Amino acid sequence: MQKHTIMVCDHIHESGLKMLESQPDINYINAADLPKDELLKVVGQADVVITRSSTEINEAFLNAATNLKALVRAGVGVDNVDIDGCSKRGIIVMNVPTANTIAAVELTMAHMLGCMRSFPYAHNHLKLERVWKREKWYGYELKDKKLGIIGFGNIGSRVGKRAKAFEMDVITYDPYINPSKATDLGIEYTTNFDDILACDIITIHTPKTQETIGIIGKKEIDKMKEGVVLINCARGGLYDEEALYEGLKNGKIRFAGIDVFVKEPATDNPLLDLDNITVTPHLGANTHESQYKIATQAAQQALDAARGISYPNALNLPIRENEIPDFVKPYLDLMQKIGFLAAQANRGAIKSLKIVGEGEIGEFVESLATFATVGALKESLGETINYVNADFVAKERGIDVVKVSSPTAGAYKSIIRLRLTTDKEVIEISGTIFNDDVQRIVEINGFTLDVEPKGRMILFKNTDVPGVIGDVGQILAKYNVNIADFRLGRDKSGLALAVILVDNDVSEEVLKELDALKASIYVKYVIL
Ligand SMILES: NC(=O)c1ccc[n+]([C@@H]2O[C@H](COP(=O)([O-])OP(=O)(O)OC[C@H]3O[C@@H](n4cnc5c(N)ncnc54)[C@H](O)[C@@H]3O)[C@@H](O)[C@H]2O)c1
Ligand SMILES: O=C(O)CC[C@@H](O)C(=O)O
């Protein structure tokens, strides 16, 4: 009998381990107690691994895991997994997305209540110091307080429901959902982040993405109410830890409840020195019920994958380079960039994607659509969106994906086009490949251009009057923003679209100043 090896790299509930032990066709190795450098010496034996957040699936791990075919992340967040690295090596990555939802929701409520009543401090005062001083421990009630929820997915929406049961006034910010998901629950929906910053208590439940890292920093804390309470049971770094520390230290933030840290284990984190914070060592998923569910589901997914039966909750599709004609690959890559660019330039709940392949690329419009969807949803879903689940997730979100192909492409050999429609606006971007692999955006919203889709880009639509380019240059120079490239598209009606590639980060201040120019119609900033 052919035996498959499943290695468990982190501690999971014993129910999952028992499922693996009892299989005649499975070699089961429990490596959860091995130091991580020792793990690298044995992981080469594994066909499938089960991990949690404490194992970094990075280049070193993947180089050592020479036989690996599939990886099961026993939990939701995959920010510790190099999914592209796995895809390139043909390793299928799966997660177990909803088994710990309730555990994380309830820990969030525990932190919220703990913060409002200084629960651990009152507890320690009595238990450790044997002091009975009731007048020291006046807390606050949740009732009638305004709760701001950033991210209204599986966890955020359930926190909202529970907060309503506590008679709180609840508002959510999640530009990627249909507002009725909140309003149907009697929860206010906003697209103005400042409405969240005005709340009494703020909690975050987004994935860790380029957009959400540091979504709460010093500037946001400055705008908050005196005595605000902040909760983070999602991912370390969504609240900038230095700004959080400062805010807690100077009392602007009355209390914080924190389960997750930028660097874990977080035993040296300065936040632990403060006495207006409740902290837990990443326990969001740690209930018996959830760990039982996660371990058994992860074990079943690992068994199915090892036997090649199925890959439930797969997040990627290994890119089998040899099955894709060479000329198609740069178009797929370009289409993903166009999707990412379009979603950043036109933020909001995506209603539809129209993907067009013209010329010889036309017959690959199905693949183009998958890559466009991945790019467009990467903005809201981070690393959890990939080639396997893109079509499914788009359907689940009610996004209408339309594919059109045509054998001719005008002046080009092939051209690809994306029209992305959100609840707010429509953006259309076209691109092509020159000389086999040179990617170019050739049109944005009807403006003909020639732009390399790369790095930091400012899109500046303006009335085409003398002096605009000079004004833009002056503002960027004032803020030491170096221009790497400046492309201008003009139309017959007297409008122009400038695409400015810049070498360094552009602050909101710069964007506001550009937008304040008389000629400005809009300013958008995207990073590819
Ligand atoms: N502490 C723990 O042990 C623990 C346990 C489970 C999950 N988590 C973490 O909790 C978070 C939420 O998990 P989930 O299962 O609810 O995920 P989910 O995918 O169901 O929901 C995430 C929501 O965030 C929204 N979002 C994305 N970018 C946003 C942005 N910039 N602004 C506002 N909203 C945005 C998405 O549209 C989505 O609705 C993840 O980071 C996950 O890793 C932590
Ligand atoms: O227990 C873990 O591995 C982390 C759980 C949680 O953060 C998740 O993302 O599922």
Automatic annotation (TrEMBL):
EC number assigned by the record: 1.1.1.95
Domain spans labelled ACT: 457-528
Enzyme class: oxidoreductase
Keywords: Amino-acid biosynthesis, NAD, Oxidoreductase, Serine biosynthesis
Catalysed reactions, semicolon-separated: (R)-2-hydroxyglutarate + NAD(+) = 2-oxoglutarate + NADH + H(+); (2R)-3-phosphoglycerate + NAD(+) = 3-phosphooxypyruvate + NADH + H(+)
Pathway membership, UniProt: Amino-acid biosynthesis; L-serine biosynthesis; L-serine from 3-phospho-D-glycerate: step 1/3
Matching PROSITE patterns: ACT (PS51671), D_2_HYDROXYACID_DH_1 (PS00065)
Segments traversing the membrane: none
Family: Belongs to the D-isomer specific 2-hydroxyacid dehydrogenase family.
Role: Catalyzes the reversible oxidation of 3-phospho-D-glycerate to 3-phosphonooxypyruvate, the first step of the phosphorylated L-serine biosynthesis pathway. Also catalyzes the reversible oxidation of 2-hydroxyglutarate to 2-oxoglutarate.
Protein name: D-3-phosphoglycerate dehydrogenase
Organism: Hydrogenimonas cancrithermarum
